[in-house]
Write a structure and sequence with these properties.
InterPro entries: CDK (IPR050108), Kinase-like_dom_sf (IPR011009), Prot_kinase_dom (IPR000719), Ser/Thr_kinase_AS (IPR008271). The chain is mostly helical. The chain is built from eleven helices and seven strands. The strands form three sheets. Strands 3-5-6 form a three-stranded antiparallel sheet. A hairpin with a 5-residue loop joins strand 5 and strand 6.
Length: 346
């Protein structure tokens, strides 16, 4: 593993302000509660989608003051926003059908063609190397915004990442999103679809931070590359842990002593698995080359504190071939506003 980048995002450090005594936290928690859509006299559109907490998408983010009104499944930010003119509603239906219909509803609407899961079904051997980088970078960009606002997504999976025809990726479905206020806060361990759930949560941990989402990023990264889930458990939690440990090795209690205190940890419950190089797991992971495999390993660390943060991951050498000014874009600008990437879109 490369030690050039350390996951030291300030968010992963302690937030000592309690929810009842911190004004910012109260705002976040109030935002996560259900609210009713209403029109006003300004030009802000009413968000149309199934109610769920909203955060910025992976390609475009904006000021936190925009996080209001009905809680859409997708982000409410230009240019990757799903909006309608005032007072126009869409009947409840399957989310993918809803996004398909939006493009026909007039000026100001925005269509998303499919989720990442459906896209990968069309690419069973993964996608090309540049597209892998662009999709992953957009995902990290959206998560970085959420994490800096102390919001955890908690349900990252390909089905919750939306794509349009131009390659723009959007983070969606914040139905399990939570505001994180203090490091010791207890959450439910029944979060994240099993294939994308980190080992600490599978072992019963209810105290977690942004590392929960970063494990999911690693799983999605590998899946974009190969077209297949990297840890496809078929039975239960123990089977899922076995799939993880068979590739990443069993936890080393000397490096991760806290694992012994997790509710479902049982010493010697699994074979003495050793870490396996990713290219031996799936030959398609070899196309990530050294830098990509190094970054993948930083996401998929068994010990949660060792996982790289979204902000640090965007600075990893794996992204060195992307335009340098991609890091200078204002938060409301799409990465495809760069001329170099517009050429790729065409």
């Amino acid at each position: 593993m490369s030690n050039g980048i350390k996951a030291s995002d300030p968010l992963t450090q302690s937030w000592h302000s309690q929810a009842n005594g911190n004004h910012t936290t109260k705002i976040i928690l109030n935002f996560l509660r259900p609210s009713r859509s209403r029109s006003n006299n300004n030009s802000d559109p009413v968000v149309v989608s199934r109610p769920a907490p909203s955060c910025p998408n992976s390609s475009t983010v904006a000021d936190f003051s925009h996080l209001r009104r009905r809680r859409p499944r997708s982000a409410h930010y230009d240019p990757n926003t799903i909006t309608l003119p005032e007072k126009q509603e869409i009947p409840e239906q399957d989310v993918n059908e809803t996004y398909e219909r939006l493009e026909k509803l007039g000026e100001g609407s925005y269509a998303t063609k499919m989720d990442l899961s459906k896209y990968l079904e069309r690419h069973p051997t993964g996608v090309d190397c540049l597209q892998i980088k662009l999709l992953l970078f957009q995902l990290l960009r959206g998560l970085d915004f959420c994490h800096k606002k102390k919001i955890l997504h908690r349900d990252l999976k390909p089905q919750n990442l939306l794509l349009d025809d131009s390659g723009v990726l959007k983070l969606a479905d914040f139905g399990l999103a939570r505001a994180k206020s203090v490091p010791s806060r207890t959450y439910s361990h029944e979060v994240v679809t099993l294939w994308y759930r980190p080992p600490d949560v599978l072992l019963g941990s209810t105290e977690y931070s942004t590392s929960l989402d970063m494990w999911g990023v690693g799983c999605i990264f590998a899946e974009i590359c190969t077209g297949q889930a990297i840890f496809p458990g078929t039975k239960d939690v123990m089977d899922q842990l076995d799939k993880i440990f068979a590739i990443r090795g069993v936890p080393d209690v000397e490096k991760w002593p806290q694992v012994k205190s997790l509710p479902h940890y049982v010493p010697n419950a699994f074979p003495s698995y050793k870490e396996v190089p990713f290219k031996q797991v799936n030959i398609l992971l070899a196309k990530l080359q050294k830098a990509g495999n190094d970054l993948l390993g930083m996401f998929l660390q068994l010990k949660p504190d060792d996982r790289i943060s979204a902000s640090c991951a965007m600075l990893h050498p794996y992204f060195a071939t992307l335009p340098r000014n991609i890091h200078l874009l204002p938060p409301t600008a799409s990465i495809f506003s760069l001329p170099e990437l517009q050429a790729w879109q065409r």
